[in-house]
Amino acid sequence: DAKTTQPPSMDCAEGRAANLPCNHSTISGNEYVYWYRQIHSQGPQYIIHGLKNNETNEMASLIITEDRKSSTLILPHATLRDTAVYYCIAMGLRNTPLVFGKGTRLSVIA
Amino acid sequence: SQTIHQWPATLVQPVGSPLSLECTVEGTSNPNLYWYRQAAGRGLQLLFYSVGIGQISSEVPQNLSASRPQDRQFILSSKKLLLSDSGFYLCAWSLAQAKSSTDTQYFGPGTRLTVL
Fold first, then answer.
1. Mind listing the pLDDT tens digit for each residue in B34-76?
2. Do B90 and A34 touch (CB under 8 A)?
3. Are B102 and A44 a contacting pair at CB < 8 A?
4. Is the minimum CB–CB distance between A95 and chain B shorter than 8 Å?
5. Hey, is A82 helix, strand or coil?
6. Separation between Cα atoms, residue A110 and residue A65, nearest integer Å
């Protein structure tokens, strides 16, 4: 699976949009971009995934560049409960393990 | 909807004692099941995965073992715990018959194990 690069930490004001970047310049054509988050002492929570097109669900939006070398996770209105470590993962074949890097620690500030 | 349970939530065990962690999934049939470990301040390490009853694949040789006695039950065991076995153990499941070429893994709440 392709390696991903994320900033180690970010701050965001409560109520504002949180934009979390991820670089995956070596991603291959059949690899999806997955985002998970992990709130302290809890199991990772699936957020969203996509292949080429932008995706949106009730939690977030995922913007993937046309060359697929980077993506941005957008939390439209961050709340204090969104404080967590966010992981960007490139995953290909089914039934393969998730490889979590160090992620981005997002702190939402009141 | 599907839910995944793990127990116990926390566990403190002495070195050399046995271990049994249980994971169960509700609301789906024949899921893929995974055991991961997360050491303090580090990423997730896949330990075992299973695509069916009695089918276990080991990713890392160590003193841990896994079993799947029932379709939706996954057990992580050890005969003798080591200090290095301390960590956050996570069970995950995914759909075995996903329509897309990739499948999403969903995690349980985890078990925090401290070996003293």
1. 999 998 777 788 899 898 898 898 887 689 999 999 999 999 9
2. no
3. no
4. yes
5. helix
6. 31
